[in-house]
Design goal:
InterPro entries: Sig_transdc_resp-reg_C-effctor, TF_LuxR_autoind-bd_dom, TF_LuxR_autoind-bd_dom_sf, Tscrpt_reg_LuxR_C, WH-like_DNA-bd_sf
Number of domains: 2
CATH class of the largest domain: Alpha Beta
CATH topology of the largest domain: Beta-Lactamase
Number of helices: 11
Strand content: 15-25%
CATH architecture of the largest domain: 2-Layer Sandwich
Pfam families: Autoind_bind, GerE
Structural class: alpha+beta
Largest sheet: 5 strands, antiparallel
Helix content: 40-55%
Radius of gyration: 20 Å
Distance between the termini: 46 Å
Keywords: DNA-binding, Transcription, Transcription regulation
Mean pLDDT: 88
Shape: globular
Protein name: Rcorf83
Low-confidence stretches: none
CATH superfamily of the largest domain: Transcription factor LuxR-like, autoinducer-binding domain
Order of helices and strands: HHEEHHEHHEEHHHHH
Strand order of the largest sheet: 2-1-5-4-3
GO molecular function: DNA binding
Length: 234
């Protein structure tokens, strides 16, 4: 039985937490012949991810920074829309790195699927991908692919609504000192001023802020503050 995007939209609207969103996406995936799903939000150095791709593949993907090589991510960045992809097809590329990527994906049970891409304000890139571990190519059948982008935008806004009331927990939580320095930075204090207020050296303050930036995926202190506010950490 094919589950249309519009039916999934209703399920997303009724979801009350991230887990419920993931369950709705899992039901859609199963009804349409997919084994996995993944949502990815990219903004600068920050990445927002949740999904059901195999853990060993997810860890391998992150460890080797494969997002810069992933054809799905690259195509998604070029244009918004819904498209079908096949790792088997990538095996015929002249690019050795791409062929190796395809071989690794297939070895981890990622063979083909469907992806949706869209951009929001401040150049934030959204990607929703569904993947199968069987066969070489997925056919949409009666699924209306034109509803893909509206679905992805609804998922993005629903996540934003849910997270406005629930603080996000970073994969690497901030220490009390890192959070203290971050709060003073959010109030416009320099490292020297924060050092005076906290009785720490300005180099120590800067070290705490650098570590916090790494944990929250921020390139600058300004982005660190923005990310922390978005995650309801300050």
């Amino acid at each position: 039985m094919v589950m249309q995007f519009r039916m999934l939209l209703d399920c997303l609207d009724a979801a009350v937490c991230d887990s419920a969103l993931s369950q709705a996406l899992t039901s859609f995936a199963n009804c349409n012949g997919f084994d996995y799903h993944a949502y990815l939000g990219l903004e600068g150095f920050s990445r927002d991810y949740f999904g059901t791709f195999p853990t060993d593949w997810h860890n391998y993907y992150l460890k080797n920074d494969l997002a810069c090589l992933d054809p799905v991510v690259r195509q998604a960045k070029r244009s918004s829309g819904t498209f079908i992809w096949s790792a088997t097809g990538w095996l015929h590329s002249r690019d050795t790195k791409l062929r190796n990527f395809a071989s690794d994906a297939i070895a981890h049970g990622i063979t083909h699927g469907l992806a949706i891409s869209a951009r929001t304000s401040f150049d934030r890139q959204l990607i929703l991908s569904f993947a199968s571990s069987q066969g070489d190519y997925w056919r949409p059948g009666t699924l209306d692919l034109s509803d893909g982008v509206p679905l992805l935008m609804e998922l993005h806004h629903r996540l934003k609504e849910l997270r406005q009331t629930v603080p996000q927990v970073p994969a690497r939580p901030l220490s009390s000192r890192e959070r203290l320095c971050l709060i003073w930075a959010a109030k416009g204090k320099t490292a020297i001023e924060t050092g005076t207020l906290t009785q720490l050296s300005h180099r120590t303050v800067q070290s705490y802020l650098d570590t916090a930036r790494s944990k929250l995926g921020a390139a600058t202190v300004a982005q660190l503050v923005a990310n922390a506010k978005d995650m309801k950490l300050i």
